[in-house]
TrEMBL record:
Residue span, HTH tetR-type domain: 7-67
PROSITE patterns hit by this protein: HTH_TETR_2 (PS50977)
Record SUPFAM superfamilies: Homeodomain-like (SSF46689), Tetracyclin repressor-like, C-terminal domain (SSF48498)
DNA-binding region (UniProt annotation): 30-49
Domain of life: Bacteria
Protein name: TetR/AcrR family transcriptional regulator
UniProt lineage: Bacteria, Bacillati, Actinomycetota, Actinomycetes, Mycobacteriales
Keyword entries, A-Z: DNA-binding, Transcription, Transcription regulation
Amino acid sequence: MARPLDHAKRAEILDAVVRYIAERGLADLSLRPLAAALGTSSRMLIYYFGTKEELLVQALATHRPDLTAVFAEVHDAAALRERLWDFWRANTTGSGAVSVRVMLQVLGAACAPHGPYAGYADKATAAFVTALTAGLRALNPDDEPDVVATVLVSGLRGILQDRLITGDTERTDRAARRLIDHTIR
């Protein structure tokens, strides 16, 4: 008889996977060294998650905020700008920054033809654009809210990538603020 899943252990592993990849990178990710660093075996990781790719997808899913809630009940442009700015700050510091570092690596890997993360990356991007579009639509439905959301999501992602590459927090904070302030009117 198969051993039942230990949900607490599973949650602990998912959290540790994101930290591991943020520190070491996705490009050379291998189950054996990952398992050793997590204090488990590659066999147990496969038992819990099936594949290395599914492990990473589930780990990132546990770190994704409820984007619908982030942009819900925004009644004016100033409130939406502040909500986005708060979201920016939450994702550039602490555990949010760790998740973002891994997410950007996954998005890059998803660009490869037949990449194992393409489905996840598509869903993650769509979730962000859809949630932000709903918030924008409530403010001004005639201003192509899906296009404005795409500009913001893609622009902020690019600025995040710049920040991770250059380490220039001051300039990238100013750039993110400008993008948010000039895009949401």
